[in-house]
């Protein structure tokens, strides 16, 4: 997918002449499609809105009710859910935040270093290693899972955040290397050639020219890393067993188990809603970047 | 899709005409390898090395506590001949992949085509349809799904308005997998955005010419839109299928980690997880991982081979 594709998608936002064209030409057909799309939108959003409203109702009212408006609004479920487990959700949120932020730093640093080498530096074996890097994208992580676990177990890293964070500093998310290589190639060569003439080292070119010019792709990588790490369930499930080290996702899962999924649904939903808040924040404020990222690279979500 | 261009294309333009310090600078291989150092450590220490070790482990009996014991191909033989749970997990996974991917892509394409008519409110619709696929992999959403399809959940409350007494969709082995298929289809947003990007690249004058010749919208879709969109369909299909093979979280949360009822949601990855971290049969689980790799590799190879016959590439 090319950049023009992404721009084309986003062009609609600016109300170019294409927008509304069909609305004028065939008002009836257009009204029908709008009606269908609005119906579909409601169907898509209903479960989410319902969960939001359920978090504000008394637990007994959650079942056997399809309405979005609670008969009485109560915020009790939030503190009840927050302290619903042996360890409070504050700890889980803090752990998730630390892991996500360190992952962002690791991914942006390590992947941009590797991408700079692939995109801009000449060295023997570059094409070979680039092909290998692309090959690792295809490898399902299950294939490396068990030896990695044994390795981290022997290093004494289980029940710490290290198995979740250190791989990011070693550019294990090769997808972002690929993403950045694509972007770096679009930056005019003349810039770094001129800098080189002036005797700039590769390091300075990377730091002073490439990185400042690459903010869009670095931001995309940072946001997607944050979202993926925040949502990650499998990694924490394997490496974190002590409840004090749990992430939000693991906390929610324990909540389901401890309650047998029966008694405190409102509390569970309240914590579920809170766990989605950071994602929703990125959706609200960085939507263009997210959509552009998907349209240009075909990321899966 | 121009994304897989080799870095060799960059080289041609790099070679500086002015020699001297510049040339010496670029000749320096050391810089490249210094910049790649973190990736190299990761590649050998976390990817290539572990992959080889896991291949070795798949021929052993290994429980983490005692040293791996070489047992030849016994793991693979048992998987192929005497493992009912493996067979069940294959059945579940393939059903899930074959149902969820085509349905998801069909919805994504349908909505993308509807949105591509140049209509008002496009950014709003796009945002709303995209939201579920952004939130979708969270445990919170799996928790929500568990409630939606519970015996007294939202779906059945809704059906009760029409006098229908719905079953407990989650705890019924006949329906539990389909709740997960619906969850996957609900997240059609990101392939939809990729379809939209593809649709935007189809030249408008092709449709105008077709209209002048009297081609109906329906015909235009089958004769212009779909053929020109096949590279995007192909890309989406490959990405979504590989992703569906690796699905884990929703099945884990909805079944409480068991893959139940009666193995009806025992996704392949869930079975692998149980063998490795439930029963600590690390050798056996490694063999399962390698079988997953082979399945995904075969599927990918098959897709690329078949692409010659149905994917339309520009000249």
Walk me through this protein's architecture.
Chain B: It is a multi-pass membrane protein. Chain B: Belongs to the binding-protein-dependent transport system permease family. The complex is a heterodimer of chains A (301) and B (315). Chain A is built from 16 helices and no strands. Chain A is an all-alpha fold and 301 residues long. Chain A folds into 2 domains: 72 residues, no CATH class; 175 residues, MetI-like (MetI-like fold, Orthogonal Bundle), CATH 1.10.3720. Chain B folds into 2 domains: 60 residues, no CATH class; 233 residues, MetI-like (MetI-like fold), CATH 1.10.3720. Helices cover 70% and strands 1% of the residues of chain B. Chain B has 16 helices and 2 strands. In chain B, strand 1 and strand 2 form a beta hairpin. The chains are: A mainly alpha (301), B mainly alpha (315). Chains A and B meet through helix 1, helix 2, helix 3, helix 5 and helix 6 of A and helix 1, helix 2, helix 3, helix 4 and helix 6 of B.
